[in-house]
Amino acid sequence: MKTIPLSTQRIDLALTQGTSDLLSVFDVVVQEVQVEAVILAAEIIEHNP
User: Fold this and answer.
1) Which residue spans adopt a coiled-coil conformation according to this UniProt entry (predicted)?
2) pTM exceeds 0.70 for this model
3) What is the pLDDT of residues 30-46, one digit of tens each?
């Protein structure tokens, strides 16, 4: 797995230590927003089982 360089600006979406997988974060976010559509790349499933 590639790591993000420390010089790159980013937002940490970890909810709790050890729980930052995409679907856990997504489940919390969609409770707070109204989503009209979602488009996912095939790599999302491959790299986030």
Assistant:
1) none
2) no
3) 888 887 888 888 888 78
